[in-house]
Amino acid sequence: MNRNISRGLNMLTQLRSYEPPKWASSLKDIPQFFVQLAQRNTPIHPWNISNLPEGFSLSIKRDDLTGSTLSGNKVRKLEFLLADALNKKCDTIFTCGGVQSNHCRATAVAARQLGLDCYLFLRSSEQSTDIGCKGNLFLNKMVGSRIIVVPKLQYKSGLKQMMEKMAEKLKQQGSSAYLIEIGGSSYTGMFGYLTAFQEMIEQNVLEDYDDIVVTVGSGGTASGIAIGNYLTGSKLKCHAVNVSDNAAYFYNKINEDLRSGGIDVKAEDIIDIIDGYKGGGYGVSAQHELENIIEISRTTGILVDPVYNIKAIRGMLTEMKSNPGRFKGKRVLYIHTGGVFGLYDGRMDSLITQSAEGTNQVFYWGDINDSLPC
Q1: Angle CA(263)–CA(268)–CA(271) in degrees, nearest 5?
Q2: Side-chain half-sphere of 288: how many Cα atoms within 13 Å?
Q3: Interatomic CA distance for residues 208 and 197, integer angstroms
Q4: DSSP letters of 179-227?
Q5: pLDDT tens-digit readout, 324-371
Q6: In what order do the strands lie in the sheet with 44-46?
Q7: What is d(CA 227, CA 265) in angstroms, rounded to the nearest whole number?
Q8: 79-83, 312-316, 369-373: which range is least confident on average?
Q9: pLDDT number for residue 164
Q10: Best CA proximity match to 14, nearest among 117, 113, 143
Q11: DSSP per residue over 49-91, as a string?
Q12: DSSP 3-state assignment of 274?
């Protein structure tokens, strides 16, 4: 059998029929299929983080545990996006993001597992292919994805057109490309977190919590959580801490999904976008943020990434302290969206080996006498 035919048959066997939760069955344009990529159900447990303001209790949903090389929130979106690509008989995936994009890494790995080729359009301020081989890039290269270094352009006004142009060239060579927008945050991808919301319902979230907090960097996860919360009639209040753009941008993004689904409500009425905590900018880390990552790791054993979660956590804690009325109640659930490979991009190295308290505890046996090192 021809290899391409064999590969095509293998890919199609991965498709599974999708049945939405009953509370989402009235939505328009519900995906027909999904592919099983994420590890479920990711656990929820108390999180005894330091500096939690008095009166609040905090738990964490571990969507950093959706997989190994596929870990993080992006894999839930890819279950629907890659199924759509397979159903449309595409053999190549195009997507885009920053050099250390978690979404691009997850897309590259998942595409290869499904027998699809993958092109990653990675935004960089440097006009060079010398982007290194650390963090997410290491995995991108390990699975053989093709990397195109592009300027730091907006998706709709720049990157999309670049991908479309290359997709047309690929078509002339007999291949068919499926374009996934930045972060996988399309209406189709949003169903990943509608499904996750049903998972959370089964984990008793509606009864056990008053508020949900998540990071928002491209909008798809926040959109799915907010829309799921609305459609179920839940009384939870949803918050999303912005780490890349501004509240107006994300409200607009969620409103697009609401219109696509035929839902007559405004994003501003179903989710609270929290501005003011992106620091020096998207992907830019301050020293105190990196030190905070180490403190959380040392005291709770949970690793958070420098691009998304640490900024959202800092924003959440600050708002709890300075503006507690922003929250509906005191029982808060934080959704950990992953990003652990971003810790391996080099920015943490010097902090761990030189200055961080309790992180470089390395001893040689010959130097230890009768007492244990402490």
Answers
A1: 90
A2: 4
A3: 14
A4: E--GGG-SHHHHHHHHHHHHHHHHTTHHHH-SEEEEEESSSHHHHHHHH
A5: 999 999 999 999 999 999 999 999 988 888 755 667 788 888 778 777
A6: 44-46, 57-62, 331-336, 211-216, 237-242, 272-274
A7: 10
A8: 369-373
A9: 96
A10: 113
A11: -TTPPTT-EEEEEEGGGS-STT-STHHHHHHHHHHHHHHTT--
A12: strand
How far apart are alpha carbons 302 and 49 in whole angstroms? 10
**3-state SS assignment for residue 119:** strand
**Environment class of 353 (CB within 10 Å of its CB; exposed 0-12, middle 13-18, buried 19+):** exposed
H or E, element range at 257: helix 247-261
- Crossing angle of helices 309-322 and 287-300, in 10° steps, is 90
Measured CA distances, 124 to 83, 168, 283, 285 (Å): 29, 24, 11, 16
By three-state DSSP, how is residue 23 classified?
helix
Q: Given this model, what pLDDT does residue 181 score? A: 95
Q: Quote the tokens at residue 165.
A: 């142009």
Residue 337's pLDDT is what? Answer: 98
Give the residue-averaged pLDDT of 182-189. Answer: 97
Residues identified as active-site:
101
Instruction: Dig out the tokens for 27 from the structure.
Output: 């939505």
The end-to-end CA distance of the chain, in Å, is 64
What tokens appear for 349 in the block? 């190295």
Question: How confident is the model at residue 359, as a pLDDT?
Answer: 72
Residue 39: what pLDDT?
Answer: 96
Mean pLDDT confidence for 252-257: 98
Choose among 27, 60, 47: nearest CA to 265.
Answer: 27
Band the pLDDT of 6: cuts 50, 70, 90.
Answer: very low
**Mean pLDDT, rounded, of the chain:** 93
Confidence class for position 7, pLDDT limits 50, 70, 90: low
Distance, in Å, from the CA atom of 304 to the CA atom of 292, rounded to the nearest integer, reads 10
Distance between CA atoms of residues 187 and 177, nearest Å: 19
